[in-house]
Fold Guanine deaminase.
Amino acid sequence: GARTVTAVRGRLVWFCDDPFLVGTGAAMRHEKDGLLICVDGRIAYSGPYQDGIGRVPEGVKVVDYRHCVITPGFVDSHVHYTQVGMVASYGEKLINWLDKFVYPEGMKYSDKKYAEEGAELFCKELLRNGTTTALVFTSTYPHSVDVLFDRAAKYGMRIAAGKVLMDRNAPEALLDRSVEEAMEQTRGLIDKWHNKAGTRNVYAVMPRFPLACTRDMLTEAGRLWEEYPSVLMHSHIAENADEVFEGRKLFPECRTYLDVLDDHGLLRAGTVLAHGVHLTLGELDTCHRTGAAIAHCPTSNLFLGSGLFRLRDATTPSRPVTVGLATDVGGGTSLSMLTTMNEAYKVGALDGNPIDAVRLFYLATLGSARAMRMDHQIGSLQRGHEADFVVLDPRATPLLEKRTRTGDGSIEDVLFALALLGDAEAVEATYVAGRRVHQRGRKEEKATW
Ligand code: GUN
Ligand code: ZN
């Protein structure tokens, strides 16, 4: 059939490498007057407007975003769609908060209709916030995965998700009835959804965290993952000091808390661990050695009083750990990756390590994509990548407008102002696979592909 072509003009920023390792100059690409041409969902050209304009086919209108910054769509490397109904629940630390708010809400997802509503709201909210890919926790019920993948396919988004595995220390109705059944359901979902033609869905094996899983569950999860090396493995680790203490008691045979996962074959490239606040330097070594990545969840770690993730220790160039940025809603308090960058900056500041805008945007795009082993597909505006991008408006609010007009105009300064002052309001438009799926102020984009 005919090719689908879209073209946009604006200030382009993306990353081709890790600025924590190679520095800003070698890692960042910046095109002040740039052009992006998308053909059939992929980026066919990204570079200077003048050099590229001749390649835009006749009849294709170039959308003018010259006053905006265009970056790869944000990649949220850890978030719970099933927690959109209980986000911002007052006053508890992790374990009590799980019992009081998370698990009761999770049980509501046994109702398919309720799950569908949650999935629809979640996907729309991601797009309104400029997030085009996420690694998503669901509930234990297989249909809670079905409805999410179904919605993601509707919007054409690249989403990774999986059924939660948990067989202890939570209400009976939320637990897997047996390890065998949990594995059978997981296999069924992988066959049904993983890299399914016509979708961009990716499966992730999801043991909730060591406190909610028996040895048998972790063993079988590790075995199953070995059979499907292209799926991801996603869990929580060392978020909270009490969690680590309880985990050490439940698995006294493991040398460290992180070794609970390693000993069950759950640490390698493709593993994404949420939080990692209380990992020791030795455990960070293990992440580096195995290729396991960490999702940094600053708004959540502050909201639940979990602690301050030591990004500098994780990214130290002598043994770097792959790190992505994540909202962790509903432990996190915002689905905006800009707001999340803001909080990551402050967490760094408290640690004597304020993170510059370039590194914040890296973590929210290519960093998270690398954590999810998707950096060859998303997280970049490099030619050949999937055309997921976000258009950010430095004049979105009076304060942003004033601030960016008063600043020095450098891309570093504009990005920093957007990260610290922006949220969904700063998202002018969101594109998925070359199609605009969100336009600020408009009710809903018509699906016209
Ligand atoms: N640890 C285990 N489950 C959860 C969860 O749902 N949210 C957070 N923040 N931590 C967890
Ligand atoms: Zn979480």
